[in-house]
Design a protein that fits this description.
By secondary structure, the chain is of the alpha+beta class. Helices cover 48% and strands 12% of the residues.
Length: 485
Amino acid sequence: MPLTFIDIEKQKNWRIGLLFILLLLMYFLASAALFQGFMLVFPIFFIKNGSFWITGHPTFLLTLIAFSLVTASIHFYFSAFGAVRSVMNSLNASPPDPDDGIHKRLRDIIDEIHIVTGDKRKIDCMVIPSLSMNALAVADLKGEAVIAITEGLLSRLTRPQLEAVLAHEAYHILSGDCLEATVVTSLFGMYSSMLDKLQNLAEEDTAGFHPAFIPFWIFLKLSNLLNLFISREREYRADAGAIRMTRNPLAMAESLYLISKNWRGSGFIGRGIEMLCIVNPQVNSLDESEGWLADMMSTHPPLRKRIGILLDMAHASMSWLETRANLKTGVSDVSEGLSQREGTLSEFMCPYCRQPLYAISYEKTKVYQCNSCRGVMVDNDRIPRIIVRREIPCPERIKALAKAVIMDNQRNLTIRKLRGAGTGIKSGVLCLKCNNPMFRTFYSLAYLVEIDRCGICGITWFDKDELEMLQCLIENRITADKNLS
């Protein structure tokens, strides 16, 4: 039913104006300090006026004010009006793949949200190519609004759980509290990722310090201080709004519990973007505490308390939720994942058998398989989706094979290193798209499964069982399964 309980803000929030004033003041103080330092270092240029202080030069003051106003206006315009694009670019987010079944479900639910809310606000959806589990909402002064969800969370949630998460993020957008958080993030928080890169650079430098730290550090601290204006209580309101939309508090509680037990994106989602997320990517003890200090400095309320409130609505307990979650992690074994199956004939030819490949659905995304040698071609951007999904459990045969192959590859790699041969990237088969040689290499040094990769076309060729082995290895590392150890 229409969300008549939400009064969508039609005027800009007064806090947005306050942010611009703060930005203007920051530029003025920085310019004034720089110019004052210049006057003290080179006093001979100002001695005729009888003052070494900037307050004694009204013309200079007016010039600095005009310069600060222009600079702050440019910064505010490109940040606040292009905030959605800026945040999405920083996360490498992309629109849902129409050929992917899981992505299609995301699009369908967003369309349902438009119907439920009376189509009062256009909301787009994006997918973040990360195995972490998180979601966020962004909006800007240009009127754009996007809900972005990581591949890991999208692939592991059931439909009711996904509906609850998307409803939560939609409430942030519809209620207007997402706008000010996005503007703060775009104005100041986005620089935290630059600070992280500079810190990594400093670790490799013997000096250990770069002057460029200073402005980015100031921006980051301003972002933290502006958290004072963005109450952590808004997450409680968004949880309640999601329940009003979905009528399913248990699904929301299950989603938050699942996120709490997995990687939330720390190291991938920048520190200045955490206020936009459904949970803080950084595991922070302050987030799990209460009191005036936590209320002022933390962007998210205690996760366990949020789950407890939702469970009270559903008349359930935390122990019941934990038991239910543990039961859901058990999966039954199947004979094979990529067994021979029906598919659509494609234009691609197998590099070994010279037989046409068939487009099939594996883990609800499109791959191309040879029905003769069982090799598989996968677009690189679809590999993380396959890895993170659990539609098809890992067979015992693949687990045993993966363990044996990894041990053998590890031994060979060690021998090559001792001989000074390195990891050794070799030419492989010809690319199925551009016909250039692909490179035979390991998927990564953490997962020693050999693959053929084309850096031009962005595709990877897996020989028989290689894709299932890779999926099995990474899934078991993520879920802390000890079967391969």
